[in-house]
Structure formats: C-alpha cells, structure tokens
Specification:
The structure holds 2 protein chains of 2 kinds. Chain A is an alpha/beta fold. Chain A has helices at 20-26, 30-38, 40-50, 62-71, 92-99, 101-115, 129-144, 175-182, 211-223, 225-230, 262-269, 303-309, 327-341, 347-364, 370-386, 390-394, 397-405, 407-411; strands spanning 78-83, 119-124, 160-165, 206-210, 239-246, 252-257, 279-284, 291-293, 317-322. In chain A, a hairpin with a 6-residue loop joins β7 and β8 (291-293). By secondary structure, chain B is an alpha/beta fold. Chain B folds into 3 domains: 2-90, Ubiquitin-like (UB roll) (Roll), CATH 3.10.20; 93-118 and 127-206, 2-Layer Sandwich (Alpha-Beta Plaits); 211-567, Rossmann fold. In chain B, α9 (267-287) packs across α15. The radius of gyration of chain B is 25 Å and the shape is globular. The chains are: A alpha/beta, B alpha/beta. The A-B interface holds A 169, 186, 188, 190-191, 193, 339-348, 350-355, 358, 371-372, 375, 378-379, 381-382, 384-388, 393 and B 41-47, 49, 57-58, 60, 63-65, 78, 81-82, 85-86, 89-90, 92-93, 122-123, 125-126, 147-148, 150, 166-167, 169-174.
Chain lengths: 416, 576
Amino acid sequence: MSKTRSLISEFFDKYQIDHFDDYIRLGGFKGLKKALEAGPDYVIEALKKSELRGRGGAAYPAYKKWSSSKERQAPTKYVLVNGDEGEPGTFKDRDLLDKDPYKVLEGLIIAGYTIGAQEGYIYIREEYELIRQKLTEAIAHAKHHNYLGQNILGTDFSFQVKVYTGAGAYVCGENTALIESMHGNVGRPRVKRPRVSEKGLFHQPTMVNNVETFACAATILAHGADTYANAGLNGFKGTKMISLCGNISKPGVYEVPFGITLREIIEDIGGGTRDLSLGKFVQSGGASCALIPYTHFDTPYTYEDFDKEGFSIGSGAIVVANGNIRVVDYLSSVTSFFEHESCGKCTPCREGTKRMHEIIEDLCRDQASQKQIDRLNQIAYTMIDSSLCGLGQTAPAATLSALKHFEDEIMESVVL
Amino acid sequence: MVKVKINNTSIEVPKDFTVLDAARHAGYDVPTLCFMKDINEVGACRVCLVEIEGYDKLQASCVTNVREGMSVKTNTKRVRERVRTNVELLLENHNRECTTCVRSRNCELLNLAENLGVTELEFQGQQRPRYFDDYSPSIVRDSSKCILCGKCVSTCKDVQGIGILGFQNRGHMTNVGPAFQAKMNETDCIYCGQCVNVCPVGALSEKRDIHRVWEAIEDPSIQVVVQAAPAVRAALGEEFGNPIGTRTTGKMAAAMRRLGFDTIFDTNFAADLTIMEEGYELLDRIQNNGVLPMITSCSPGWIRYCEFNHHDFLPNLSSCKSPHQMLGALTKSYYAQARDIDPDKIYVVSVMPCISKKNEAARPEMEQDGHRDVDAVITTRELAKMIKQAGIDFNNLPDEGFDDFMGDYTGAGVIFGATGGVMEAALRTVADVLTGQDLQAIDYQAVRGTDAFKEATVKIGDLEVSVAVVNGTKAAGQLLEQIRNKEKTYHFIEVMGCPGGCVNGGGQPKVTQHIRDHINLAEKRAQALYAEDLALPVRKSHENQEVKHLYDTFLGKPNSHKAHHLLHTYYTKRVK
C-alpha cells in the first residue's frame, strides 16, 4: 500500500486550467457548494472536527482563527492567502498553486463566506511569476463561471479575489511584515498591537492563512471532516503536504498521513538517502526549526510527538542530510540564511544573526574557541527570549538542537 | 483603572498604560533607547524587556499594555542578562570612539552600558559599512554610530511631515539615511535638526563651527561681533546643570564677553526691528491689496520647507530677512559706519538655537555690498562648549548686559523664541500703529501655548485681523493645504519650523528621551521668555529706543529703499 495520500492533492495534474468544466466534473468546488448550502457555522464545526491546524508553521487551530474572525463585527473584512513561501526547503505551496489553483481559490472563497469578508488577496512570492499568471487566469475562469464575483452560484454572497506579488524578503512571510509590504512600506514586522485580526490589510480586520490551510479547508468541506480525519494513521487526524529534499533519492512534494514515521518518509517515500550513506539528520519544518538526529527517525510525524521532542512540523519542509554532511557546514547555510533575511529592525535578531554566523564560520574552519561556544549560546537564548518577531525567536533553533544532539562532533571544531 | 504588580509593588494604573508607564509609575526605571511616546513606539531596541507572568518570552514593556492582575518583574537575572547582551550586541556594531565623540557627555547608549556594567567586549566581529556625510552646512551624519532605533526616521516623517530619512537594506547591513544614500545636502532636508535632538547617540549632529569662531576671536585685526537669539538664553543654563526653563540672559552676556567677543549685540534688538519691517509690510499688504496671507520668514527651516514643498506660497512669505541676518547686515553697514570700522574687518557670529541658521547664513544672497551678513553660526550647544573650553565658571558669573547701539530690546523681541511670539510681538505694534494709541492690553493669550495650530481674530480699530500660528512643518503643510482649498483665510500667519518654536530648535541643549517623555520641553523653556517679557519696562518693538535711533539716523523709515537693500531678501523655488 502506498504510504502517501491523495486528498488535498487529489486533483494534481488531472486538469487544465482553461477546462473549467473538467474540473467541476472531477468534483471540484464541491466544498464551496457544501459550505454555501450548510452555512458558516457548519464550516467552522467541520474545521474543528478535523482538527485542522494552520499550515504556515505556527499550527494554530484553524477553527479558532476562523470563528474569531467570523465573530468580529466590522463592515469590511479581508481574507489573505499567505503564499510568500520563503521557508528554505519548502515548496509545497508552489505545487498547490501550480497543480490545483482552483482548490486554493475554493478554500479562500469558503473562508470569505464563513467570516463575512467581501474581498480576498493572494500574496505570492516574487519568484512564483508563472504561478501568478496561472492564478490570475484561474480567477478569471472562476469568475466567468460565477464561482467568484457577484452573487456566487446564485446566492447573496459576493466575493472578489486579487493577486499581489511580494518583493522577495523572507520576513514578509510574517503576517504584519507581509501587510506592511502590501501597504507599500518597508517589509518589517510591526509590534503586535493591534493584531492583524483587528487591524490588518488596509487597516481592516484581516484573516491570514497559509495556502495549504485553504486547500485543506476546501478538501474537508468536500469530503467531510471524518473522511479527511480518518486519512491519518493510528488515530492522528488528516494529512499534510510535505516538501522532501536534500540528500534524498526522490525529492518532491508528497501528501502524507499524520502518524507516519520519519523513517518511512525518508526510506519508503523518498527512496532513501543518496549514495548509500545513512541518514544523519533531517531538518523538519524549515530553517527556523530544530535538527532531528537519526536516533529519532522513528518519531511519528505528528504535532504531538514532535512537540514532545522539541521538533517542528512547521511548514512541512523535510531536508535530509546524509553522513557526508558536516553538522557545522549545514548550520552555516542556516545561519547565513538568517543573517541575510533578518529585516534589521530589532537588536537581537539584526546583530545576533550576524554574530551567530561568524561563530559558526569559525567552527567550519575549525578555529572556534570554547568562549565562542558560550557566546553562541548566550546570543541564541537572547534572540529566542527577546526578538520582536518569530524570525529572530526561531533563527537559533537549528544551532541549539545541533549543540544538543551533535555536541561531540561540533566540539571537534573547537580548538582554542 | 487596573491593578498590576510591578516587582513587589502593587499599584493601580489607567488601563491604557503600557507596562513601561506602569513600571515608571511604580518607581522602577526601565531603560529605553528607541521609545518615543506616540512617535516611535516600535519595540525595536529590546532593552526595555521585562518578565511578565504567563508569558514564556520577555516582553518589550514600551509596547505592551497592562492588563488586570498582571504581574511584572523588571529586574531579574534573566532580564539583566538579556538586556545586557542586547546592549553588547549594539556596542559590537558601534563605532566606539566614545572619548572623542560629540555625545561622550550625554550618550544614552554609553549611559546604559555603564549602568549595566558592560566593562569589556570580548568579541569584535565585522561592523557594517560606514557612511559619513558632512557635506551640508548644517548637519553631520555618521552611520557608524547609529543604533537603528528609528527615532530620527519617525521624527522626520511623522513629526515634521518630511521623511528624508528611512531604513535601507536589511539585517546586519541595515542603515538609516536618505534614499539611495544621497547626501543630506542633495535632499530636501530643511535642517530643522529635530532628528539631531532625538538621536540617542552621536549618529546625527550639527556641523561644528567653533574653530572658526576661535580663530576670529584670536585675530587681533578683526572685530568679532556676537549676537544671541532669544531662545538661547532660555536653554543655555541646562548645559551647566540648571533646571529646564532657567533664564540665563545676564550670565550669557557675561560669558560671551569673557570668551573674547569684542562686541555683544542681541538678536532681540533685530527681532524688534523685524517687527517694524514685517509689521509695516503687513500693513502695506492689507491696505494696498497685496498678497495675503502674509507669512513670517524668521525660521530658515520653514523657508526651506516652503521653497521645496509649497512654491505657490513663496509670494506670501514676508520679504524680511530673519533677525540675525538683519543684525549682521546692519553691523557691517550702520555700525561700521558709525564707528568707522572697515566692514571687512568685522566678523559676525550668531549664536542660534538652530542648525538651519548655518545653512541660511551660507545662502549666496545673504550679503550686501560684498559683505556676508553673518560669518559664522554656532548653536546653543556650541556656545556652551566654548564656555567650557575657556574654563568659565558659568553659574557663578555676574549678570551683565549687552552692548549699546544694537543691544537694547523689548519684551516683544524676547518672545520671538516661542511659538506665537512673533505674532504677539507684531500684533502689539500693528495695533498701536493702526489705532494711533498706546494700548495696554498687549497679552495675546490666544496665540500662546505649544499647540501645533492656533488661530485668532483680533479687532484692531475698525479692522478684524485674522491670524494663525503654526509650529512644526507638518502643521504648516496642513494649514497651507487648507488655505489652498479655501477652507481658511487669514491676514497673517506665523510659522516656526520646529515643534514648539525656536526654544525647541535643533541646536538647543540635548535632553534625554527619559525626560522628554515626561515634560513639555518647549513650554518650560518658553516660560522663561514670557517671564522676561513681563519683567521688561518696554514691551513693544516700536518703542525700542535704539531701533528708533536706527530709523532716525540711518534707515529713514520702515520698508525704505535702504531698509529693503539691507534687510529684505527673496526666495527660490527648489525642486526635490
């Protein structure tokens, strides 16, 4: 039996975007029809039952976000699709938008209907130019067939969708920075007062979700919460889109059931690490997450089990490193990424990412001192404890996990 | 009100308080670097960290609101260590030439580092590239000292409504400066210096001209004439430990004499003269259908702002030079003639609360008959530095007066330094001239106070004169827009480029943010000026005997041909 699933990704590569009727024949937009028929409360109940969590990385229960957005009384509300997908090793949103843009649109329309918004925006990272074109086309087709626009499918509900392109900064995946950049300001996070849910896009209440969250919502509505939930293994509910890459034979985007083990993902789905060397560690969830050493490869891929170990599902990225990779070299690519992507607003992140990278570089050259390791820890914990946004708070995670699980190897590079 | 516990102190505070407000209210100081109430509440520097029960991470107290029952700890090992590491990180990327830095005496970063006991930095990594810009006559920018708090950015954009400075690049390469790394003199910066005033470190400062002044003083063949603007005496004392709002007119004159200046005139004299020239110009415009509203021209920051942003109002600007330029021009003509001194051998120094005055004095048109009106402009801060360099015990100086000829002044001249002061002084004179009486009700309360915008209608004889007073260029821009849209009409408008007027100018003594958060600086300093006004026997510009003498013996009458030649100027449309 195949270890992957086909629910969120059920229509991948099965239709062409300009053949809208084919899509409907496949069963597309069934979720939207169900939502329009059963009402907003039904949608929220279904999200709750399926235990869907936000797929951008923070894993906040989707039904909570949707119901509080629904309850907020305001004449104008927005729904925003965060398609900035900047987390290194993550490319599942690209596949979702590329291979089934209608499903993402469907989820967005359902969200607009549920919370009572009139307009939705899709924020796409700059590099996804072809996808942007495709999506714009999909919006036109959906509109033409009355799945978007005025009085959708003959109901009172009207909804417009616009596409917005980012300018390439990783930090703009953070909701407040994303909105700042949409306002034409420098993409820097703002302090969380007021929250985006109160005062977001164009200073109106805004609900932001990841691309995959919308696709999941559409799937849940189309197939029912039970069908979706039961696709998980050993009582864990639902499936997750993962981006598998690194030292792996068959890199790609896969839909996996929650409850599968990392070993199954690496060996059965990914075909094992390349060149016959053994897997050494994976980084799951993105550059901002911990390294998982080979000793923990039997951990089930679930929010609960990962939390217990200090690991992250995060965005669903799984970067595999085999025995040929030196931990410090891997860390160097991570710290260099954060040094480059820190927005520069708050002290610990702006200065800390730079200093961490300098120390890791010294480790790579086998020239680090014990004092530098102490300093590395000090800076890392200061960043976690006092950075303004999630970027700085999570940037040290990989380094700290490496110091925990690969201390012996790292200490080989400490000479002074 | 909500109940909160700060360390061991339980207090009740209004529910819109931040944790920082509450902590300070409870008597615990929490350090800040980037925080400016209502202006820069960005939570960027991360030194105001506190532990709040129920939060797993430390919180920036400046941007966290209190909640009922909140329990806050401001001084734990964890807080101290994290704040200290953040300050160390700032210092590692900071040009630590503290001993020779312009801010060595009052640097907020240095003070904080000292309080935290940072005595050693073990690690010195790479520092970001340095941008140093001293091309403008007024302002110096040194990015190697910038700690990226963003106070200058917010002040320029949100307080002054201009937006020259912004963040560029990202992460460790972030820097603050004009777009595309333009030099300040290539931008539409008006040199108000409000950014300099809020900079916690030495990244922004005035262009220093002290050395030129010393050179002139020490040249025996040159007669050095000094003048000080009204606002200088209201703040100079702060540099010598006196409370904000201390009036030090007499000591200032005494100190200038001891510094070796040959002649001590007073810009207040020229303020009275400005009222004569500007007052008659206004009467002329009103009576002969001239361009109205007439707008004051004493503030060079405002003039530059108007030249760059509101060209259509250039004909509305009074053609009067600013007072210190007038005094400079007269020193090299009227005074030189009377004392038979070669104007080439006179060096005029202006002590100003302003850094834009440096640029104003350097404008090509600010000269007559081949003589620069003013040769050097130094700020209140620079004068204090000179007094210190000369070893003068300022606080124990006797009170002395200014020199005769152009050193006398009235209460009207004194209040020029505060927002509304020029307007009030003008009204006192215009009212007397129009009614032909010596009016006694001369306190125009409606134009006093530090509100950004004030307006009044004053009945003078048969004429209803409607006036407006704005301070800060943002308020000025808004008012001009309303006038343009015909929502407002006035006869006369006073504009001062700095919020609160010259007393809060960019050349005034530095006041740390901590104190700025709590007091109305401009109001306190203005009080000193209004007190002096009340104490003076003569309070109307046209009753200044030396001004009268000037007209009788030299200029003829206000707005005469000679007065125009020496005391008036023109403006230029400038493109951003």
